[in-house]
Design goal:
Its main location: membrane. The chain is α/β, with parallel strands linked by helices. It has a domain of 180 residues: Rossmann fold. The chain has 15 helices and 11 strands. The strands form 4 sheets. It has a 5-stranded parallel sheet with strand order 3-5-2-6-9. Strands 1-4 form a two-stranded antiparallel ribbon. Strands 7-8 form a two-stranded antiparallel sheet. Strand 10 and strand 11 form a beta hairpin. Helix 1 packs parallel to helix 5, helix 4 packs antiparallel against helix 5 and helix 12 runs parallel beside helix 15. The chain is globular and about 65 Å long. The two termini are 32 Å apart. The structure holds 3'-phosphate-adenosine-5'-phosphate sulfate. The site of 3'-phosphate-adenosine-5'-phosphate sulfate (PPS) has 18 residues, from helix 6, helix 9, helix 13 and strand 11.
Length: 394
């Protein structure tokens, strides 16, 4: 990204890179083996699956001989290394690896595609919207969650997937920023199959700050509905920094990265963590192509305190019946976030993975205040443009 600051630490980067390549190779191999095992003639009928296949790897109810063999193989994997993780957790981690090392895009996509194909096969029977043969056809998305990074986009997508009239690709396609040269057929091919009346969706939070994205989405379809999950820009910046810190523990402090010059108090707006939160500026870019009525702003804060309320607004915006309601959520005290009572394709409660809801480091309150002062005028402009007050400056 144009605003990104590069931290040049060659030895740790090369170790990380080697680790990432090994990790992805291992995942690709495991999925290949799993895929073969799953496709063999005697595998568990889809209707016996209680969960999506990745979670299903743990399913205790595997009974027949082939399944037992598979179970023992999988048990070996899970007991030797914590590789078989929940699907959304795996997707989030892969996406974070990819963000640091875009050259691994091909590898990552192979793993993510098989994850989605697997999810599709396992989830389709349970949701009852598609047959296990995967009826329907792949379509370009009619609605896209375009941002913002660390706003709560994964939570929104996972919650929306519960709706029987929404089908979404789990992984971030990054089509309108990184993969545009692959063409629309490539993009369509990533999408799940849908039946008449179902909406195809994807989420890639970096679109919101990608200069070319509005024109490109407009060229695909001027009717595309756009959704932006926004969050207090100061908390968002800290969340963004926390994510980077989790992968590169040696980076400078948040406080030192915030300023161009700490003595003069000049904020470094070229740092992506700061730049992304200037929502009014990015929104201007989208309004050159799309009318305000075609963009829905979801409050990242309310998505946590009142998920059903925000989901109600999203379902209205998409022209769907309000099927996702209070009944679908419970507040998980341990996680500290709302979770689904039943995820798509599963009968089990489902919280987002460990990369969502990280503990943030303590930031010098003076620096936080300085950032609040910096964002205030941009926030006011944003409230004015959207006609909604998000309460970040109360
Ligand atoms: N239900 C639920 N469970 C867990 N986390 C939740 C939930 N709702 C919103 N959030 C917030 O989502 C933040 C991550 O945002 P994104 O999913 O947009 O991140 S990313 O851009 O895709 O990396 C993540 O940020 P951090 O708390 O900084 O980790 C969460 O605060």
């Amino acid at each position: 990204m144009a605003f990104s600051r590069v931290f040049s630490e060659p030895p740790s980067k090369s170790i990380f890179k080697t680790f990432a390549v090994m990790f992805l190779s291992l995942l690709a191999s495991l999925y290949f083996i799993h895929y073969l095992a799953d496709r063999c003639g005697t595998c568990i009928p889809t209707e016996k699956r209680q969960t999506g296949p990745v979670e299903g790897l743990y399913a205790p109810e595997i009974k027949d001989v082939v399944s037992l063999r598979r179970k023992s193989l999988l048990h070996k994997w899970t007991s030797t290394r914590p590789l078989v993780m929940r699907r959304d957790n795996l997707i989030s981690r892969l996406e974070e690896v990819d963000e640091e090392l875009p050259e691994l895009e091909g590898y990552k996509r192979t793993v993510l595609n098989s994850l989605d194909a697997d999810w599709e096969a396992g989830g389709s029977y349970v949701t009852g919207q598609l047959s296990s043969l995967g009826e329907g056809s792949k379509k370009l998305p009619q609605a896209i969650i375009i941002g913002v990074k660390k706003g709560g986009t994964r939570a929104l997508l996972e919650f929306l997937r519960v709706h029987p009239d929404i089908r979404a690709v789990g992984a971030e396609p990054h089509f309108f920023d990184r993969n545009y040269d692959n063409g629309l057929d490539w993009y369509r091919d990533l999408m799940p199959k849908t039946l008449e009346g179902q909406i195809t969706m994807e989420k890639t939070p970096s679109y919101f700050v990608t200069r070319e994205a509005p024109a490109r989405i407009y060229a695909m379809s001027r009717d595309t509905k756009l959704i932006v999950v926004v969050r207090d820009p100061v908390t968002r910046a800290i969340s963004d920094y926390t994510q980077t810190l989790s992968k590169k523990p040696d980076i400078p402090t948040f406080e030192s990265l915030t300023f161009k010059n700490r003595t003069t108090g000049l904020i470094d707006t070229s740092w992506s963590a700061i730049q992304i939160g200037i929502y009014a500026k990015h929104l201007d870019n989208w309004l050159q192509y799309f009318p305000m009525e075609q963009i829905l702003f979801v409050s990242g804060e309310r998505l946590i305190t009142d998920p059903a309320g925000e989901l109600g607004r999203v379902q209205d915006f998409l022209g769907l019946k309000r099927i996702i309601t209070d009944k679908h959520f419970y507040f998980n005290q341990t996680k500290g976030f709302p979770c689904l009572k039943k995820a798509e394709g599963s009968s089990k409660p489902h919280c987002l993975g460990k990369t969502k809801g990280r503990t943030h480091p303590n930031i010098d309150p003076e620096v936080v205040q300085r950032l609040r002062d910096f964002y205030r005028p941009f926030n006011m402009k944003f409230y004015q443009m959207t006609g909604r007050t998000f309460g970040w400056d109360d």
